[in-house]
Each structure stands twice: as structure tokens, then as C-alpha cells.
Amino acid sequence: MIFDILIPAFNESANLPRIEEQLIPQLQRDRVEFEVLVVDDGSTDDTGSKADELARRRKDVRVIHHERNMGLGAALRTGYSHASHQWVVSIDCDLSYSPDQVRRLVERVSPEVDAVFGSPYMRGGQVLGVGQMRVIPSKGVNVLYSLIMRRNLSCWTGMFRAVRTSAVQSIRITQDGFDGVAEIAVKLARKGFQIVEVPAVLGRRTAGESKAHLGREFRRHLVQLEKLIAREM
DSSP letter at 127? Predict the structure, then answer.
């Protein structure tokens, strides 16, 4: 089975080379059949040109460009709509989830499962090198999603996941920002798709700058949670 490896990228020039230096070699070692799909989300550095250069060298890499920066949710929406294989694995360009963990996702794929979420918050998962000022609000938001959705998932907000292409293409992703990640999980759950979790280790970013702004993203999640309570999603 071939997996689309979806990588949203906004101003990730420092991390783009890791796709070829770290991610692809690890996928090959783990015998994961793949096609990399980079969505350049309107980068203002040379992320786009580096991605294009990589695609020219490798037939197993495709690149899609946004003319302007639209946000993580929008980049995922674009990537999912262009997926050409049965399953899509999404992973951060900074590889804060190390490439060797992709195997955990793909090994859990089965005919009975529609999505496999990597979770640093479940038993066996870890968060390394990330400050508690980020971890505590994130855990809190995920608990709220679980309570409101009445589903025992520990990580609604993490992008490291494998999703059946037909399932994710059947939902409408409306949020353009980081809250789009949780929106995808919520809508998959509401449509009755089977979601399972595997332990994952989230590490800290070592190059480039994070695009997430804690206060703004927390407020967006609260708005989305309010909509869930009001049944507006």
C-alpha cells in the first residue's frame, strides 16, 4: 500500500532539506511505500523553490503552492484534496514527530480503521523539550474536546496522523488555522468513522520558527468548542 505523506510548509526553508535527509531515508528503511506531498502555504522565504527543486530530483515528491499564506487548516484541506492514494499521513515539516514514528501509524492501519492518531498524551506517549506553558493548555483543550464529543481520544489537536483518504475527503474542512486540525478530528468522529490512537513522542522544534501563537490558537479552540456545545458545527 502506498501512503501520501502530506507536509504543510510555511517559511520552512531551514527544515525542508530534512525531508530528503531524514524522512525519506527512514521511510525507505521501514519499507513504507510513499509519495511525499508538500503544500507550500504561501511562503515568503525559499521554501517553495527548495520544494520544487526536490520534486525535480525525485519522482516520489509532489509540490502544491498557495499564492498566499492561508493557514495550516487550509494547507491540510489542499493536501487532502490532492491525495491520490488510499491513506494520507500528515506530519510537521520540522519533524517534531520523528520520522521513525510514521511506522507506528501505518502498522495500525486496517480495514476496520479509518484514522490513526499519534498521541503524546496517551499512555506510552511523551512530550520532550516543550515548556509546560504550552503543554498544559494543550492538554486542557484536548480534555474539553473529549468531554464535549463524549469520545475517549487524548489528542484531537495533533497533526501527526494517518487518515483514510475517502474518509477525510467526505468531510468539509472550513477552518483555515491550527483549529482546522481539531475540526477534522471532530467531523470524522461525528460521521462515525473509526478512530484509534497510538503513542507518539512530540519533541521540540530545532530549526525555524513555530507558526502557532498560543493565545490566539487557544481562543480559536474555545470558539470552536462553543460551537460544538451549541451544535453549530
Answer: E
Range of the domain at 126: 2-229
Tens of pLDDT along 81-137? Answer: 999 999 999 999 999 999 999 999 999 999 999 999 999 999 999 999 877 777 888
Could you tell me which residues are beta bridge partners of residue 164?
A: 87
Give the three cell numbers for residue 60: 516520489
Q: Pairing between strand 87-90 and 33-41? A: unpaired
Q: How many domains does the chain have?
A: 1
What does the pLDDT read at residue 208? Answer: 47
Q: Which of 95, 93, 88, 71 is nearest to 7 (CA)?
A: 93
- Whether 198 shows a pLDDT value over 60: the answer reads yes
> Helix, strand or coil for residue 98?
coil
pTM for this model (two decimals)? 0.90
Instruction: Report the distance separating Cα 69 and Cα 87, nearest Å.
Output: 26
CATH number of the domain residue 213 falls in: 3.90.550.10
* Positive or negative torsion for Cα 43, 44, 47, 48: positive
Picking from 118, 55, 49, the residue whose alpha carbon sits closest to that of residue 90 is: 118
